[in-house]
Amino acid sequence: QLRLVESGGGLVQPGGSLRLACAASVYSLDNYSIGWFRQAPGKEREAVACISRTDGAKIWTDSVKGRFTISRDNAKKMVYLQMNSVKPEDTVVYYCAARGSMNNYCTAYDVGYDYWGQGTQVTVSS
């Protein structure tokens, strides 16, 4: 069983930066595809980014392209979402998710992910 724990959320001013981290409790993270999603109250979950051995790093959401980057450190079993030039509309809960180890490519569909973290709140406000 893979367990994911997000951290790094909090309050940040518009234009600032924040780095979210996703820690995985697994023997080896190498073959897992990891995605970042976000969800606002009353709205559907939105795919933000994904990273996999097959696809590399992908940013799904047009509104964050050029501002957010996803990276991973397999040795530390960590995946990161670097958020730069944040905007008030980035204020939502962010989740990391993992696909089963046999699915080593990315998808933007949340149903394609088998494991989810508990989420971390990001609030962009002055």
Query: Helicity level, as a percent range?
Result: under 10%
Question: What count of helical segments does DSSP give?
Answer: 0
Segments where pLDDT lies below 50 for 5+ residues? none
The value of Rg in angstroms is 13 Å
The end-to-end distance, rounded to whole angstroms, is 40 Å
Describe this structure in words.
The protein is mainly β and 126 residues long. It has strands spanning 3-7, 10-12, 18-25, 34-39, 46-52, 56-59, 68-73, 78-83, 92-98, 115-116, 120-124. The protein is globular.
Mind sketching the topology for me?
Blueprint: E1 3-7, E2 10-12, E3 18-25, E4 34-39, E5 46-52, E6 56-59, E7 68-73, E8 78-83, E9 92-98, E10 115-116, E11 120-124
Parallel strand pairs: 2-11
Antiparallel strand pairs: 1-3, 3-8, 4-5, 4-9, 5-6, 7-8, 9-10, 9-11
What are the main properties of this structure?
seven-stranded mixed β-sheet; four-stranded antiparallel β-sheet; mainly beta
Quick take:
The protein is mainly beta.
